[in-house]
Amino acid sequence: MNTDNIRSLFPILNQQVYGKPLVYFDNAATTQKPQAVIDELCRYYTTLNSNIHRGAHYLAAQATEKYEETRIAVQSFVNARHSHEIIFTRGTTESINLVAASFGQAFLHEGDEVVISAMEHHSNIVPWQLACQRHGATLRTIPFNDQGVLDIEALPGLLNEHTRIVAVNHVSNTLGTINPIADIVTIAHSRNIPVLVDGAQAISHMKVDVQALGCDFYCFSGHKMYGPMGVGVMYGREELLEKMPPYQGGGEMIKEVTFEQTTYNELPFKFEAGTPSVGDVLALKAAIDFMLQTGIDNIAAHEKELTDYATSRLLTIDGIRLFGTAPDKTSVISFLIGNAHPYDTGTLLDKLGIAVRTGHHCTQPIMDKYGIPGTVRASFAVYNTIEEVDALYAALKRIAPILL
Ligand code: PLP
Known about the structure:
By secondary structure, the protein is α/β, with parallel strands linked by helices. Helices cover 40% and strands 17% of the residues.
């Protein structure tokens, strides 16, 4: 894989900040977009803008056709059995809220339990807390060890006849840990408990096959996989989606409305009330095409090389503390310099042109476990280079003695 060629597809990378070449290591927050994605957005608003599904005119028909083509592209990308199992949302957060609200309404009752992991993003904690509060259920958590490895042996003991769903992330956005989803599904399914997977941090780094994983729901965001903000996906198994009530009411999700009663549209439209972000959906297809053309295995191999190299370089710097050292992890490196506040490190890196994220990364329970206020997080994508990792290393080598 030629990284120069890949970088040339991403116009934003070719710039200086504070007179230094931009090194963009905040990919877990959002990835940059290739020109093809930007062009697709522009093309939609320049030539195709119209509301889908309802119009009798040419533009509406074209936009609808392309919108539904993207649904099929997503179906194939994650290997869902049916295209109507792909629901477009605004992002992972909305996808999980949809399931927590709708599944909760159908299946959660007083005394029930929901199991999540202790390394979840707030997006896979708070919607379940809300659902539990609404229905009188209890939230339980699967612990993880100091390396950041989930204690999967604790899972069977957390499941019982009251457990209604297990919700875990595929990859931790703070620790980088890749969780053993297929094993979790096997354990949960042996007790007829469905599994939701928050795939926000997995989808751009590995081949995701929802049928091979066996999960019942899989949620992700377009903007973390080289696509636009404003679009996400909730994959749900048909059998469960059929039993779940609509999440939001409005146009498109109905068959017939009278003041006495409303009947709902079929899947997937039952869960897509109102006007969706059509241009963003169309541009998501361009992002998928980019990933497929680059090759997901190539992306994974390149990111692993960067992560292994960065880890070994950073560990040679006095005072560096790494958080998340699971053997199976993606391209996320969370660290602190001694007890220096992560914000100070991030600010100094920024002045050297290096963009990282600092803070709790929407995973406050992880910070509580380690007894720290937050971390500095460098996260790599396919367009990052060994030279950029060297720049991070050189910057930290300069910064560390100042902060220690
Ligand atoms: N889940 C994980 C693991 C994440 O990393 C994120 C975002 O950082 C989310 C959920 C929420 O994604 P979004 O803000 O795109 O809805």
